Every structure is written in C-alpha cells, then in structure tokens.
C-alpha cells in the first residue's frame, strides 16, 4: 500500500479535511467526513460511495483488524489509487480531525452518488419515508436508520431539513445512510412523483383523527415526518392525510425519531402479519 505520512495538524491536506467536516453544508454528499472502522466498512461496501482520502494511525495499521480494513478499502478501489489517498497521521492529527472523545484510529473523506426519485427500485409494495423540515441531525440520522431497518424503499429529504451528511447525522444512522437511497426533492416534484406511482401520502400529525392502527399500510404509502416543534409544513399537510400515534399517558407528544420508529414498525407489523 502506497501512503504518505503527515504529523502536522496545519498541513494543507489536514486543513482541507477539517474544512469539509466543518463546512459540510457547502459540500453535502460530494465530500463528507466519517470516522471509525464500522462506518467506513459500511461505506466501502456501498456501490454509491467513492473514497477520496483515508487517514489512519500507525497503531491502527499494526492491528490485525486495521490491516483487514485497509486491505478491504484498497480492494474496493478499481484503479491504482494516487499516493495521497492513504495518509498515515500522528495521534495528534487524528485527534484534531476527530469529533469523538476516543478516536478509533481511522477516518475518511468520501463522496456519495445521490439517487433520483425516478431511479427508486421499489419492492413489491412501495414504502417511502419523507423528512420535512427536521432540524436535529440526530433525529434525521435515527429516522434514516429505522427506515433502513423497516425496509423502506427510500428516504426523501425535503427543503428546510438538515443535511443527512452532517457528521452527527451520519453517526446517528450507524451506517444505514449507505444502505438506503437518500433523495433530495422539492415538494411539488414529490407530489407529482407519488401521484404518478399511485402512492398515498400520509403525515404524522398529533391533531389527526385517524390512528396509525386504523390505517391499512399494506397499500403503497409515503409517510412524512416534520419539524420537531411545528410538525409537517402546511403545504404538505394539505396534500396528505394525517395519522396520529395514540398517547394514553400524560406525555404531550413523542420525539419525531421515536414517532417515526413507532409508525414505520406498524408498517412492518402489518406487512409481515
């Protein structure tokens, strides 16, 4: 494996990686920063992800598991990689790059091809998850993770939603970001698409009359989850039918990620049984 060694945190390559991590809104899926063996291995396994740079410590590369992962990364690169794709860094440099208290010895800059609505490969019965104005990256990442677990066909990201490729959102997906199509769309484009596919649009709404347990989720469906404070937008709510989760105790509402988990697994329950 060809690599270069960097020990200075002010090296130009390190500055560039920090800029990508800190200015993620500018780069989005075209360049994003991830760290840790688990996330990197899942990213490498995705056909939609391209490796731009890998940073690792000498200690990591001396471990059996580290050597296995580095070989896996090398084998995933189809052409002869440039020498500066693999960069051995000092512990000081990796600490500067890392967001976690205990860095795991490896980090990477990658890019991801974003899917299109017309490129969704639907299963037998279409099942979409729509994120409308969600602001907390932890919530967004969790919704992507549970959408993957529940077998949704894609996650649609509407305007005013935080970026799915923010470091915190990526960590919250636990790698599911690389398993399920993430699609950025405008509202009208989404409306036209689901209408053309005969998919019913529903929205989680605490004020809705119908419970999720009254609806037949065996039909083609898109379920929207909205902003933590205000719910889904009025424009979307006018085009969707509301669904609520019954609350029997004294809690006023559920966190949006928790609500998504309950709703999506009601879809799973109905479609399995």
Using brief descriptors, characterize the structure shown.
2 domains; six-stranded parallel sheet; 11 strands; 11 helices; 60s Ribosomal Protein L30, Chain: A; Alpha/beta knot; alpha/beta
Please tell me the CATH architecture of the largest domain by its name: 3-Layer(aba) Sandwich
Percentage of helical residues?
25-40%
Taken from the alpha-carbon principal axes, the silhouette is: elongated
Our measurement of the CA-to-CA distance between the termini, rounded to an integer number of angstroms, reads 51 Å
Number of helices: 11
- Per DSSP E runs of 2 or more residues, the count of β-strands stands at 11
CATH topology of the largest domain: Alpha/beta knot
Taking pLDDT < 50 over at least 5 consecutive residues as the criterion, the unreliable ranges are none
- Indicate the radius of gyration in whole angstroms: 21 Å
- Going by helix content, strand content and strand pairing, the class is alpha/beta
**Approximately what portion of the residues adopt beta-strand conformation?**
15-25%
Strands across the major sheet, in which order? 8-7-6-10-9-11
The figure for the number of domains is 2
Largest sheet: 6 strands, parallel
Mean pLDDT: 93
Classified in CATH, the superfamily of the largest domain is SPOUT methyltransferase, trefoil knot domain
Organism: hot springs metagenome
Keywords: Methyltransferase, Transferase
Domain RNA 2-O ribose methyltransferase substrate binding: 33-116
Protein name: RNA methyltransferase
